[in-house]
Amino acid sequence: MYSVFITRSLPDPIVEKIEQVAKVSMWEEEEVPVPQERLEKELEQADGILCLLTETIEEKLLLGADRLKIISNMAVGYNNIDVAAASKKGIMVTNTPGVLTETTADLTFALLMATARRIVESSTYLKNGKWQTWSPFQLTGQDVYGTTLGIIGMGRIGEAVARRAVGFGMNILYNNRSRNMEAEKQLGVIYTDFETLLRQSDFVCVLTPYTPETRNLIDREQLSWMKKTATLINTSRGGVVNEDALYEALVGHKIWAAGLDVFEEEPVPLNHPLLSLPQVVALPHIGSASIQTRMRMAELAAANLIDGLQGKKPKHLVNPAPSNIE
Ligand SMILES: NC(=O)C1=CN([C@@H]2O[C@H](COP(=O)(O)OP(=O)(O)OC[C@H]3O[C@@H](n4cnc5c(N)ncnc54)[C@H](O)[C@@H]3O)[C@@H](O)[C@H]2O)C=CC1
Ligand SMILES: O=CC(=O)O
Questions:
Q1: Could you tell me which residue ranges the D-isomer specific 2-hydroxyacid dehydrogenase catalytic domain spans (predicted)?
Q2: Which end of the chain has the smaller Cβ count within 10 Å, N or C?
């Protein structure tokens, strides 16, 4: 029987499915990630691991992982895994694309609306007893309807955000590694170069994967191109935006606001300067966090894991299959 390590407590039906083919050991804590030393030990004995984006799987962690066939990540983003190091050892790496697309697009749009219309700030204002009267410019935000949205990274989630924006009568610009002709035809989105997108958009949504190329993709210069009234929404990964530069741009009123679901360091420290700003809506990386979607992600991660263990090519392999897998 195979041996599998699951790095966080998952629902019984998922675990039971994996137990049909493997002996499972699981990190049972809900709120605390598995310590690296324990992970390293587990990896020495495991044939497969089902992990989360909270696990950093670097080359040195894989040194003793001589039995390991597959790392199944329960996320679409897999920047937490050194895929090249895994490939060198013939270890498959899989992710969970598609099943979280609409849920993450919903959250991205919710963040856009909340930031534009100061929803969180207004709710806190009311609950703190500050609401004395209605007045003409009290808690006024920015219109969403009819404005220009710029999407950086027109992949699955980018396209799903664009579909929502169509309903809000938004003019949609996008930048991507390649043109998305289907989205242009179906949704009327317009391809622009990166600088034009940042200069013309009222809302900018960042939806690229996190790679060496996208690290600090939005930095001081890029923020300086944005309109003073523009809002930046980041639901990709924290490192895609330079947080120091973003803080400076917000404090200096170079841009209007920011909606952030992701941070360079997660959980973001409570004394992080960005959290002190009223024009920042900050969320604890909940893009895909609906019950239905998290179940779908867990099911897909389990299916990828089982396929890999049994020597079948998993559906969502992100690196080349080893030579013994057809
Ligand atoms: N906040 C959250 O909870 C979630 C965050 N994510 C993040 O969203 C990312 C995107 O997910 P999907 O849309 O499923 O991926 P995808 O692969 O379908 O789309 C990513 C797009 O970004 C483009 N891209 C890559 N580098 C670029 C660059 N330098 N400039 C412009 N475009 C570039 C790609 O060509 C691709 O079209 C994930 O990699 C993950 O980091 C995904 C799900 C939930
Ligand atoms: O951030 C979440 C993911 O699935 O990637």
A1: 4-319
A2: C
Ligand having the closest approach to the CA of 79: 1
Burial 40-74 (b: 16+ CB within 10 A, else e): bebbeebbbbbbbbebebeeebbeebeebbbbbbb
**Whether residue 167 sits in one domain with residue 246:** yes
| ipTM for the assembly | 0.99
203 lines ligand 1 (CB under 6 A): no
Residue 296's CATH number? 3.40.50.720
Residue 228, domain extent: 101-282
The pLDDT of residue 323: 83
**Mean pLDDT of the chain, nearest integer:** 97
Q: Is 177's C-beta closer than 6 angstroms to any atom of ligand 1?
A: yes
Number of structural domains in the chain = 2
| 56/191 same-domain check | no
Residues 42 and 82 in one domain: yes
pLDDT digits (tens, 9 = 90+) for 273-324: 999 999 999 999 999 999 999 999 999 999 999 999 999 999 999 999 988 8
Instruction: Identify whether residues 8 and 129 lie together within a single domain.
Output: no
Within 13 Å of residue 269, how many CA atoms lie on the same side as its CB? 5
Q: Whose CA is nearest to atom 3 of ligand 1?
A: 287
Other CB atoms within 10 Å distance of the CB of residue 209: 16
In this structure, are residues 298 and 16 in contact, taking their beta carbons and an 8 Å threshold?
A: no
237 is known as an active-site residue:
yes
- Cβ atoms < 10 Å from Cβ of 119: 16
Pair 182, 305 in one domain: no
